[in-house]
Amino acid sequence: MFQPSNILITGGAGFIGSNFVRHLLANDPSVRIVNLDLLTYAGSLRNLQDLPDPTRHTFVQGDIADGPLVVRLMREHDIDAVVHFAAESHVDRSISGPAAFIQTNIVGTFTLLEAARDVWQGKYDQCRFVHISTDEVYGTLGPTDPPFAETTPYAPNSPYSASKAAADHLVRAYYETYRLPAVTTNCSNNYGPYQFPEKLIPLTIINALTGKNLPVYGDGLQVRDWLYVTDHCAAILRVLRHGRLGETYNIGGLTEKPNIEIVHVICRLLDELRPTSHGKSYIGQITHVQDRPGHDRRYAIDPRKIMRELKWAPQETFESGIRHTVEWYLGKQDWVNERMGEKYMDWIAVNRA
């Protein structure tokens, strides 16, 4: 088992990254964390409030594409593991502005790999680089196709997924060429606390509560596999400690559902937990909008490799996870208000959400 001492977490003020910071601090009493995040629209220091044992967490605002900064942090803090979450991740944003995705997801990943190659020379056997990717690199599936496996050929269909595919290839190349001690994970759609409200689940919750339309692309029958974020964090920690170098592990929630069903489930939960003043169901706020270009029809992840090799399995059902999520947003109005800032509202107006 690999036992890290000092971990550099990139993008640790974002949704999955901040949840992983919490998970790591709570489950490893010896590890120290350096959290590097640029604090773009999707990251916030509010995501890092009330951490377990914050004395073991150091936050640095900075860019993963800043090579000298990354090298300095790795040397000063004697970093022996990198867990790389930092990414531009929203498909709609990649369609309207792909340049940021190329810079962060490709150039940023390259910069981190180069820094690790430099700092870790001569001690690769004592270090790890875990790269967090997405199922979207595999493209789309037909209704009866088997789920994506680690051997599925890449076929990205958006600037976002293409940039993540390029990053995955770089990580593989650095392992194959330089034997950099790297592992890649490809996950399905995450949901849970601290998710920025441009994504389907938090957007639906927040729009419902504020009396706005609940936008559903096209017919809403796009199918996704849904993974509760704390289950994902547990899987990443197992990959960090036990994953085989050079390997890829697909992490999925074993829960395929169409988008329209997700929206209906949220509406029914809100009808129960926060009924409308007029007594009508939130379902009446659903509105179908024009589908986005290149919208993949179905994703599904086959997680049998990580379940078999690393003895991981999701602990939350979708029913329990989505209830936890709705209850969390209902109890975090201050967080919601802070995240719904001017830049976010400008984006929503442009995208008719």
Q: Could you explain the architecture of this structure?
A:
The chain is of the alpha/beta class. The chain has a domain at 6-192 and 226-254 and 295-317: 3-Layer(aba) Sandwich (Rossmann fold), CATH 3.40.50. The chain has 12 helices and 12 strands. It has helices spanning 15-27, 67-76, 91-96, 99-119, 159-178, 200-209, 229-242, 259-273, 304-310, 318-330, 333-339, 342-350, and strands at 6-10, 32-37, 57-61, 81-84, 128-134, 182-187, 189-191, 214-217, 223-228, 248-251, 256-258, 286-289. The strands form 3 sheets. The chain has a 7-stranded parallel beta sheet with strand order 3-2-1-4-5-6-10, with helices on both faces. Strands 7-9-11 form a 3-stranded mixed beta sheet. The chain has a two-stranded parallel ribbon with strand order 8-12.
How would you describe this structure in keywords?
single chain, 353 residues, alpha/beta, Rossmann fold, seven-stranded parallel β-sheet, three-stranded mixed β-sheet, 16% strand
Number of contiguous helices: 12
CATH class of the domain at 6-192 and 226-254 and 295-317: Alpha Beta
List the uncertain runs.
none
Task: Give the amount of beta strand, in percent.
Answer: 15-25%
Taking the sheet with the most strands, its summary is: 7 strands, parallel
Could you give me the name of the CATH homologous superfamily of the domain at 6-192 and 226-254 and 295-317?
NAD(P)-binding Rossmann-like Domain
Radius of gyration (Å)? 20 Å
Placed side by side, the strands forming the largest sheet appear as 3-2-1-4-5-6-10
CATH architecture of the domain at 6-192 and 226-254 and 295-317: 3-Layer(aba) Sandwich
Overall geometric form: globular
In N-to-C order, the SSE pattern is EHEEHEHHEHEEHEEHEEHEHHHH
Q: How many strands in all?
A: 12
- First and last CA, distance: 46 Å
Summarize the amount of helix as a percent range.
40-55%
Mean pLDDT level: 94
Please state the structural category: alpha/beta
Q: Might you state the CATH topology name of the domain at 6-192 and 226-254 and 295-317?
A: Rossmann fold
Q: Please state the oligomeric state of the protein chains shown.
A: single chain
